UniProtKB/TrEMBL annotation:
GO terms for molecular function: ATP binding; DNA binding; DNA helicase activity; hydrolase activity. Residues 309-474 form the Helicase ATP-binding domain. This is Probable DNA 3'-5' helicase RecG. One of its GO terms (biological process) is DNA repair. Keywords: ATP-binding, DNA damage, DNA repair, DNA-binding, Helicase, Hydrolase, Nucleotide-binding. PANTHER family: ATP-DEPENDENT DNA HELICASE HOMOLOG RECG, CHLOROPLASTIC. Residues 1-20 are annotated as: Disordered. Residues 497-674 form the Helicase C-terminal domain. The lineage of its organism: Bacteria, Bacillati, Actinomycetota, Actinomycetes, Micrococcales.
Length: 747
């Protein structure tokens, strides 16, 4: 440490570092070797970092211009901040309530002033000596409030004593002369400042980094070398440098991700399994001959793609997407029949028991009595009575049942298949990847896998989250659908329309139909866990959230609905209760369900025609669309009332209008992605597979991802093991480690 600079508190202190090693650092060098055991332990605790690569991929989340640091008067309470400012005044006073002293330091950055408070048990003269008015320093801590004022209590700090202290080796001196200061995600013990200092130190001893992006690709996209990119992202001299670095790292991220997915895809393909093809005059032919309708063009195409996969000796890994009612089940069933023709069985996994039961009913109906008797579709769930379960297990192990339908209970060790040829998973994102793996191991040979989803998946999400699967899409619905009419009910403009909603609902019920009333909350105090509510605007916050308990109670006492059976359904109920309510609604014993978003997925009650969504502005675009898909499923036209207090012209009102204006789920999914931009979307779809994208924005970078995917395809198809590019192979391995690390920190 140079004599003129002073470091205090838990700050990083260059002087306590181990003597620099001569060997340059690589990404795999442990932090223990690079920075010493104390620092390594601290970084492991704070961020689960182990290696130099981990530290260097802790990218700045922002940059502060040294001359115009974030104005001090605009910092937000609760934030961990690092500021560089001048000390304006210092005073010490006794605490009034208990023994001890408070040192209050006022700092200024020219734009605003801010108070630092240090509490001490006795006099803090030493601190007064360090923090003299006129000195400049860096101050890190969490913004709190004290007696109505924002302040930093007991911040870590480091003062710069003289502008001349140019000791080149002291990073603390050199760094503070850089025009841009990187701001890192920090914790109370690891401040942005200490991270910057450590990263700088590591960078100076860093060897040239190997490049995961091949030269030709780098030239084509005008990218920096990896070494430059890493240096500039952490230590830019001007904004152009960090932007160039971000561009390079953004492409690199897309590239590594796509290569990883392509590799996974190609390795899965390399596994050997038995092709499953229909036999002439077999089950599939008989089914097709008896089918009372013709397949839509999209269904036809998907069927061909699936049959093509299953005729190969490598297992199918395909995602079949199409909206509710688009005819996925028929397409999947045809695949099951091809498997049955080859002597094999299919396991159909549904996310809930109710949906498993529903699948059994619709498949049995589709098969017709003869095929159903021969193929014996069987329900196998945890809740079956013992005798029935034993029978189902027996049919499964003997191979008598060619189609076994259940929830994840199908994964339990007690279930053995005679010859499992195909796994169909309904609604992928409710199923973990590991569960899918477990089921794969059930067959003697790896079974073919078909994942069905009714949530339209935007192109970029499909490429990133499901990038290891082939995708088939059904866009058009079978003709003859009655459709759904969606109407926005803007209560802000027409408060009196509130009564009319219920009169309208009563009219539908009078026709012998059923309805849903959807609320964002369970009770006045409890929001439904499942509902990822849109943030409330200031306007929206004025009224309390519509909730199931209150609405249920009110509707029961409401004259036009007198005599109708109205029940509540929400996520706080046990699954038995939920199933019971859902089943009696399906059986027509309940007229109106007042519910939260628990009714969102897969519920099929053809007689339900009306849906009222209260506080519609609190639901996302896709969620509204999914909810709406619960009505108008049978021969009766659907009616969806999107009730909102949002004002005309507000963004949330606009969003609801967009949903009302189209039934095209794919368009709405793209819109949703553009609105939500990132984050949640990926999180939802990932089912626990922590993909942490730093620079890529799935909403904006679609073209870039597609280009990277194309290039990845070329590379991996020529070199599945990626032996020609060790740097890329390492980057893929590191990426996997990194997702694990993200989970560690989250947990
Ligand atoms: P999904 O599984 O995508 O929700 P289903 O396969 O359950 O859709 O189909 C919904 C309904 O439409 C079912 O009653 C099915 O028999 C019927 N259906 C499927 N495909 C067609 C078609 N091409 N023409 C007419 N009706 C169809
Ligand atoms: Mg279905």
């Amino acid at each position: 440490m140079t004599g003129s600079s002073a470091a205090h508190g838990p700050e990083f202190d260059g002087a306590s570092l181990p003597a620099p090693e001569l060997k340059p650092l690589t990404l795999d060098t442990t932090l223990k070797i690079a920075l010493g055991p104390a620092r390594a332990t601290a970084l492991r605790k704070a961020f689960a970092m182990e290696t130099v690569g981990d530290l260097l991929s802790h990218y700045p989340r922002d940059y502060a211009d040294r001359e115009v640091l974030r104005p001090l008067n605009q910092v937000t309470p609760g934030a961990n901040i690092t500021v560089i400012a001048d000390i304006v005044s210092v005073r010490e006073r006794r605490m009034s309530s208990k023994p001890g002293t408070i040192v209050e330091v006022v700092i200024s950055d020219g734009g605003g002033e801010f108070t630092l408070t240090f509490f001490g048990k006795k006099s803090q003269q030493w601190r007064l000596d360090q923090l003299r008015p006129g000195l400049r320093g860096s101050f890190s801590g969490k913004v709190g409030r004290y007696q109505g004022q924002s302040q930093l209590a007991n911040p870590a700090y480091k003062t710069f004593e003289s502008e001349e202290e140019e000791a080149r080796d002291d990073p603390s001196v050199r760094l503070r002369h850089k025009p841009l200061i990187p701001i890192y995600a920090a914790t109370a013990s690891e401040t942005s400042w200490s991270l910057q200092t450590m990263i700088d130190l590591v960078l100076r001893r860093m060897d040239t980094l190997p490049d995961p992006v091949p030269d030709d690709l780098r030239a084509e996209h005008g990218l920096l070398t990896h070494t430059e990119a890493i240096r500039w992202i952490h230590s830019p001299d001007n904004p152009a440098e960090w932007m160039a670095a971000q561009n390079t790292l953004r492409f690199t991220e897309a590239w590594v991700l796509q290569c990883a997915l392509m590799q996974r895809h190609s390795l899965a393909r390399e596994r050997r399994t038995r092709p499953r093809v229909p036999t002439p005059g077999g089950y599939l032919e008989r089914f097709d001959a008896a089918l009372p309708f013709v397949l839509t063009v999209d269904q036809e195409i998907c069927a061909v793609e699936i049959a093509g996969d299953m005729s190969q000796s490598g297992p199918m890994n395909r995602l079949l997407q199409g909206e509710v009612g688009s005819g996925k089940t028929v397409v999947a069933l045809r695949a099951m029949l091809a498997v049955a023709d080859s002597g094999g069985q299919t396991a159909l996994l549904a996310p809930t028991e109710v949906l498993a039961g529903q699948h059994l009913r619709s498949i049995t109906t589709l098969l017709g009595p003869d095929l159903a008797a021969e193929l014996m579709p069987t329900l196998l769930t945890g809740k079956l009575p013992v005798a029935q379960k034993r029978k189902a297990l027996l049919r499964t192990v003997s191979g008598q049942s060619r189609i076994v339908i259940g929830t994840h209970a199908l994964l339990s060790d007690t279930v053995t298949f005679f010859d499992l040829g195909l796994i169909v998973i309904d609604e992928q994102h409710r199923f973990g990847v590991e569960q899918r793996e477990t089921l794969r191991l059930k067959g003697a040979e790896p079974p073919h896998v078909l994942v069905m989803t009714a949530t339209p998946i935007p192109r970029t999400i499909a490429m990133t989250v499901f990038g290891d699967l082939d995708v088939s899409t059904i866009r058009i619905l079978p003709a003859g659908r009655q459709g759904i009419t969606s109407i926005v009910v803007p209560l802000a403009d027409h408060p009196d329309w509130f009564q009319r909603i219920w009169t309208k609902l009563a009219e539908e019920l009078a026709l012998g139909r059923q309805g849903f009333v959807v609320c964002p909350a369970i009770s006045p105090a409890e929001v439904e866990e499942d509902a990822e509510l849109a943030p409330a605007s200031e306007d929206d916050k004025k009224t309390p959230l519509a909730n199931v308990e209150t609405v249920h109670e009110r509707l029961r006492g409401f004259a036009p609905l007198a005599g109708y059976r109205i029940e509540a359904l929400h996520g706080r109920m046990t699954s038995e209760e939920k199933d019971r309510i859902m089943q009696s609604f399906a059986a027509g014993e309940i007229d109106v369900l007042v519910a939260t978003t628990v009714i969102e997925v897969g519920v099929d009650v053809p007689n339900a025609s009306a849906m009222v969504v209260l506080d519609a502005e609190r639901f996302g675009v896709s969620q509204l669309h999914q909810l709406r898909g619960r009505v108008g499923r049978g021969g009766v036209p659907g009616l969806c009332l999107l009730v909102t207090n949002s004002r005309t012209g507000s963004p949330s009102r606009q969003r609801i209008g967009d949903v009302a204006a189209t039934l095209d789920g794919f368009r709405l999914a793209e819109l949703d992605l553009a609105l939500r931009r990132e984050g949640n979307v990926l999180g939802d779809m990932q089912s626990g597979e922590g993909t942490s994208l730093r620079f890529l924005r799935v909403a904006e970078d679609g073209d870039l991802i597609a280009e990277a995917r194309q290039a990845a395809f070329h590379l991996v198809s020529g070199d599945p093991g990626i032996h020609t590019n060790p740097a890329l192979r390492d980057a893929i391995a590191r990426r996997l480690n990194e997702s694990e690390r993200t989970w560690l920190v989250k947990g």
